[in-house]
Amino acid sequence: MTKMSEFNIALIKGDGIGPEIVNGAVTVLDAVAEKYGHKFNYTDVLMGGCAIDATGVPLPQETIDICKASDSVLLGAVGGPKWDNCPQRPEKGLLGIRKALGLYSNLRPSILKPQLKDASPLKDEKLKNGLNVMVVRELTGGIYFGERKNAEDGSWASDEERYSVEEVKRIGKIAFETAMLRDKRVVSVDKANVLDSSKLWRRTMDELAKEYPEVTLSHMYVDNAAMQLAINPAQFDVICTSNIFGDILSDLSSAIAGSIGMLPSASLGASKCGMYEPIHGSAPDIAGQDKANPIATIVSAAMMLEMSFGLIDEAKAINDAVDKVLNMDYRTPDIYSEGMKKVGCKEMAALIAKNI
Ligand code: NAD
315 in ligand 1 pocket by Cβ < 6 Å? Predict the structure, then answer.
């Protein structure tokens, strides 16, 4: 039994398919609550295009306040062509909420489900040992937040890559702790053969590793890591890396896993309150048609149960239910192939809920 059984969850449904997929995740969370005797209290808050329509801004203060007061945030997706020419774009809400909640790490698991291995661009031979990698990316430091300079005459520009020991330590801790729940292997990715910031990164990770004697730490240069992901992805358990390298490597690992509608992510900070969301966007092309795949959001909710609420068995129940439904050959249109049973977003969520 878990210590606490009541949790407050802020729901940012957002735009496009956002409401459909978040509603699907709520259907599954309700089934978990019923089976395990928990209570999940949901509060809908506005962000993105719908917030611009209702309040004029993509991230109203009320949304920040409610998210901060919640145990966790579950996000669908924001944005769409309707708001492309707005002075403040909906996606600005995303950066704003990450900043407001102090979410300095982004965790993206890429798992290749055997039922969907045809969706991967890699050959069967490269996937024979599977793919189950967690990319832990630093989210609020490095070159994306470093000082930018431009020559007055436009002849040069520069961006600064800067990391402090503290910044590396806190993301490293997340990586080691994540590895403790998995296969206890961390590959720290850097460019320490060239960059001083990477030398500091490597030194700090080595120092931190002493606190986690059960975890094996190794180092890899980022160019090699990209190559290794493409030729032997099964060798990785947890990858820990900087903002820019993580941006690139997490997209690569997601692409190897295949369908965009299947992959979750978590953003975590100093507190247990994290933000959980699918890696895909608001898919305006299929919005409101009950065609969206809710699985990425449903497994994001499973990550929330595990990482923010410590509900390990409940998270496993969700992942097992997803596997069961896929094994029964149910598929949303994005992962459909001949001979399978085509279902919509609502039915897929209901099937997963029924199998909790
Ligand atoms: P997208 O991920 O929304 O869609 C890309 C393609 O994948 C589309 O064909 C879409 O139909 C399909 N797709 C995505 N999710 C799916 C799902 N769950 N089920 C079935 N098919 C799915 O990317 P995009 O088209 O580049 O962006 C659309 C909008 O989403 C833009 O406004 C963009 O800025 C925004 N966006 C938001 C987020 C976010 O909220 N975190 C992330 C990425 C993009």
Answer: no
97 lines ligand 1 (CB under 6 A): no
Q: How far does the centroid of ligand 1 lie from the alpha carbon of residue 327, in Å?
A: 26
Nearest-10 Cα torsion for 191, 193, 195, 198: 50
- Does the beta carbon of 284 lie inside 6 Å of ligand 1? yes
Going from the Cα of 156 to the center of ligand 1, the distance in angstroms, rounded, reads 34
Residue-by-residue pLDDT tens, the chain, 356 positions: 445 589 999 999 999 999 999 999 999 999 999 999 999 999 999 999 999 999 999 999 999 999 999 999 999 999 999 999 888 889 889 888 988 999 999 999 999 888 888 778 888 888 888 889 999 999 989 998 899 999 999 999 999 999 999 999 999 999 999 999 899 999 999 999 999 999 999 999 999 999 999 999 999 999 999 999 999 999 999 999 999 999 999 889 888 887 789 999 999 998 778 999 999 999 999 999 999 999 999 999 999 999 899 999 999 999 999 999 999 999 999 999 889 999 999 999 999 999 99
144 catalytic? Reply is yes
Asked about 247 being catalytic, the answer comes back as: yes
Nearest Cα neighbor of 356 from 75, 40, 36 is 36
pTM of this structure: 0.90
Task: Kindly give the distance from the C-alpha atom of residue 230 to the centroid of ligand 1, in angstroms, as a whole number.
Answer: 24
